[in-house]
Amino acid sequence: MLPIAAALFSFYAAVALLGGSAGGQAAVVEHTFVVKQVYIRHLCNDTLATVVNGQFPGPPVEATEGDTVIVHLVNESPFEITIHWHGVKQRLTCWADGAGMVTQCPIQPNSTFTYRFKVDGQEGTLWWHSHVSILRATLHGIIIIRPKSGSYPFQNHQPHVDVPIIIGEWWQRDLMKVDKNFSNGGSFSDNPAGATINGKLGDLYNCSGVVEDNFVLNVEQGKTYMLRLVNAALFSEYYFKVAGHKFTVVGADANYITPYTTDVVAIAPGETFDVLMVADAPPCRYYMAALANQPPAPDPQIPVFVSRGIVQYANDDTTGAAASGCRDGRPPPMPEMPDQHDTTTTFHFHGNLSGLPTHPLLPQLRGRVDDRLFISLGKGTICPGDRPSCRRGGGDEAEAIEVAYMNNVSFRLPERMSMLEARQYGGNAGLAVQELPARPPSVFNFTDPALIPVGPGVPLEKIEATRKATTVRRFAHNATVEVVFQSTATMQSDSNPMHLHGHDFFVLAQGHGNYDPAKHVRTYNLVDPLLKNTVQVPRLGWAVVRFVADNPGAWFMHCHFEFHIAMGMATVFEVANGATPDDTLPPPPPDLPKCIPHKKE
Ligand SMILES: *[C@@H]1O[C@H](CO)[C@@H](O)[C@H](O)[C@H]1NC(C)=O
Ligand SMILES: *[C@@H]1O[C@H](CO)[C@@H](O)[C@H](O)[C@H]1NC(C)=O
Ligand SMILES: *[C@@H]1O[C@H](CO)[C@@H](O)[C@H](O)[C@H]1NC(C)=O
Ligand SMILES: *[C@@H]1O[C@H](CO)[C@@H](O)[C@H](O)[C@H]1NC(C)=O
Ligand SMILES: *[C@@H]1O[C@H](CO)[C@@H](O)[C@H](O)[C@H]1NC(C)=O
Ligand SMILES: *[C@@H]1O[C@H](CO)[C@@H](O)[C@H](O)[C@H]1NC(C)=O
Ligand SMILES: *[C@@H]1O[C@H](CO)[C@@H](O)[C@H](O)[C@H]1NC(C)=O
Ligand SMILES: *[C@@H]1O[C@H](CO)[C@@H](O)[C@H](O)[C@H]1NC(C)=O
Ligand SMILES: [Cu+2]
């Protein structure tokens, strides 16, 4: 029997701003992460959750740019685990990227592995999460990389303290079963129980009269707070607001951006934003809220998820006698949230951000493109057991399995060996790997909403047929690669937060409808594009990114919606070694976990 850890929340107080090795020599930041199952109580239920060091969210990794991070992973859970350091560029340390079966075989129960990498050439907020299946719902935490100089490139606004704001979900289902359900086409009953801010569901959730705790941010009038936003949710993009306050967005995916003032942040799974908030409202209490958005019907609908927390002014004497205008029992003001089906606010939010090309850490955008890919992102069906035909909704024929794809191939992870090991040993070491097509095998009206409806009564469409394979796309060292991502309306019309490991990319443009080079190339921002590791490809729209393939290794490239990645919306970008040892991936660390052949169920 495991211990009952009823109220184990990691307590995210405001973290001291510039500690560690600021201004000094590069330091080593060392942690031991013990992965274990604990019971956590929410909504009248003790739920067994897999967490690091008993905490949900997990412990923060705080470093200064240039530091070395060492994390000893001790797996005391019954599951195979890897930890991915999301957004860390991992230059020449692909072995530490933690993508299960892509860069390493998983760490078996009762085994350990030590991750070693540098946080170099990037400053801001990133995060870590497990990358063997869906367990990242509770296996995640923030990574904060502070500037070596001790000061930020935004004058007049040096923040007072850092405030991690990790948006997540609380699940009360057996996540391993949910994962299995997704890889078999998904089940409509598999939804989270609620949304969370820093592990708290907030007071919109209650059960039998027990109201859930809010995350509380204590502020002092006039001070500036650096909200470090992470979307660690499996399912949804979120809108985040604080009543009575405005934000200045200054960073995205650990890159500085041109400061952008707004009262709402749209954050997709995998994205991070650094947001300054000045406590300049009348001393009081204000709700902060995170609301999940989703495409409207006929897309399948999930319940509305809202978590809220509280911004509490120090000099608001709500319990004492002094009058302060907001003590008379009224509830704190709630921010006016966008509609849950509003997909325009996120389009404008992302479209309004631009990079900060004058910052010394930001690379130059390259003009000449060596490789061009056009990747359609959609859903299709396969027939079980390679049968020639199947149908939807039961009957005599076998049930079609819904999958997600890139360019009409649904990704399947290898089972015998990781793709990076196969790359290292040459000739794919016998893994059955195929080249990801550079464009969709056939063109259709990708964003025609007539393709969306799906359900037991809707017959299989010809366009749905797809296949599964382990795909890879190989790039010469130092190649400049441009990728057009096209979201489609196939059986759904979700946006797609596309995440590339090991590289940041410039986001050159986004738009609605079908991408058309004749119209859209001239809209590219070649002056101050955003540099990101995750691009939110709009619903029924497209986005264009460009990056330099200069980090040798095998890098996962996938949608960060958990249901899409589990269903196969993924591939691997392999980058060749360069001509010198400085451009060559070293051999694997000696303790890299060995693969244990999987029993087929
Ligand atoms: C959670 O607790 C409530 C009330 O006791 C119960 O009705 C519900 O079925 C529980 N849910 C799960 C997933 O255990
Ligand atoms: C891990 O070790 C514990 C304690 O020695 C043991 O009870 C458990 O069965 C082991 N688990 C596995 C999967 O080997
Ligand atoms: C998985 O799918 C089955 C069949 O649709 C469903 O009964 C079950 O509730 C789903 N989720 C879990 C966690 O088992
Ligand atoms: C508890 O939740 C229900 C809906 O689930 C709501 O009607 C009720 O007002 C809530 N109670 C409290 C005290 O928040
Ligand atoms: C910026 O946002 C405004 C609305 O806030 C919108 O009208 C405009 O189109 C957006 N710009 C871009 C490039 O998306
Ligand atoms: C694609 O579908 C949309 C929506 O039905 C329609 O407006 C558009 O004209 C179509 N485009 C083409 C090229 O057929
Ligand atoms: C997708 O691939 C399947 C299987 O190879 C093929 O039958 C189908 O025609 C392809 N569909 C499209 C739209 O290219
Ligand atoms: C990489 O490519 C750029 C642009 O094509 C070129 O200027 C540079 O010399 C190349 N660097 C190496 C190490 O090959
Ligand atoms: Cu990731």
From TrEMBL:
<dbReference type="InterPro" id="IPR034288">
    <property type="entry name" value="CuRO_1_LCC"/>
</dbReference>
<dbReference type="InterPro" id="IPR008972">
    <property type="entry name" value="Cupredoxin"/>
</dbReference>
<feature type="domain" description="Plastocyanin-like">
    <location>
        <begin position="36"/>
        <end position="149"/>
    </location>
</feature>
<keyword id="KW-0439">Lignin degradation</keyword>
<dbReference type="Pfam" id="PF00394">
    <property type="entry name" value="Cu-oxidase"/>
</dbReference>
<dbReference type="InterPro" id="IPR011707">
    <property type="entry name" value="Cu-oxidase-like_N"/>
</dbReference>
<dbReference type="Pfam" id="PF07731">
    <property type="entry name" value="Cu-oxidase_2"/>
</dbReference>
<keyword id="KW-0186">Copper</keyword>
<dbReference type="InterPro" id="IPR045087">
    <property type="entry name" value="Cu-oxidase_fam"/>
</dbReference>
<feature type="domain" description="Plastocyanin-like">
    <location>
        <begin position="439"/>
        <end position="577"/>
    </location>
</feature>
<dbReference type="Pfam" id="PF07732">
    <property type="entry name" value="Cu-oxidase_3"/>
</dbReference>
<dbReference type="GO" id="GO:0005507">
    <property type="term" value="F:copper ion binding"/>
</dbReference>
<protein>
    <recommendedName>
        <fullName>laccase</fullName>
        <ecNumber>1.10.3.2</ecNumber>
    </recommendedName>
</protein>
<comment type="function">
    <text>Lignin degradation and detoxification of lignin-derived products.</text>
</comment>
<dbReference type="InterPro" id="IPR001117">
    <property type="entry name" value="Cu-oxidase_2nd"/>
</dbReference>
<dbReference type="GO" id="GO:0048046">
    <property type="term" value="C:apoplast"/>
</dbReference>
<dbReference type="InterPro" id="IPR033138">
    <property type="entry name" value="Cu_oxidase_CS"/>
</dbReference>
<keyword id="KW-0677">Repeat</keyword>
<keyword id="KW-0732">Signal</keyword>
<keyword id="KW-0964">Secreted</keyword>
<dbReference type="InterPro" id="IPR034285">
    <property type="entry name" value="CuRO_2_LCC"/>
</dbReference>
<dbReference type="InterPro" id="IPR011706">
    <property type="entry name" value="Cu-oxidase_C"/>
</dbReference>
<keyword id="KW-0560">Oxidoreductase</keyword>
<dbReference type="GO" id="GO:0016491">
    <property type="term" value="F:oxidoreductase activity"/>
</dbReference>
<keyword id="KW-0052">Apoplast</keyword>
<dbReference type="InterPro" id="IPR002355">
    <property type="entry name" value="Cu_oxidase_Cu_BS"/>
</dbReference>
<feature type="region of interest" description="Disordered">
    <location>
        <begin position="580"/>
        <end position="601"/>
    </location>
</feature>
<feature type="signal peptide">
    <location>
        <begin position="1"/>
        <end position="26"/>
    </location>
</feature>
<feature type="domain" description="Plastocyanin-like">
    <location>
        <begin position="162"/>
        <end position="297"/>
    </location>
</feature>
<dbReference type="GO" id="GO:0052716">
    <property type="term" value="F:hydroquinone:oxygen oxidoreductase activity"/>
</dbReference>
<dbReference type="GO" id="GO:0046274">
    <property type="term" value="P:lignin catabolic process"/>
</dbReference>
<keyword id="KW-0479">Metal-binding</keyword>
<comment type="similarity">
    <text>Belongs to the multicopper oxidase family.</text>
</comment>
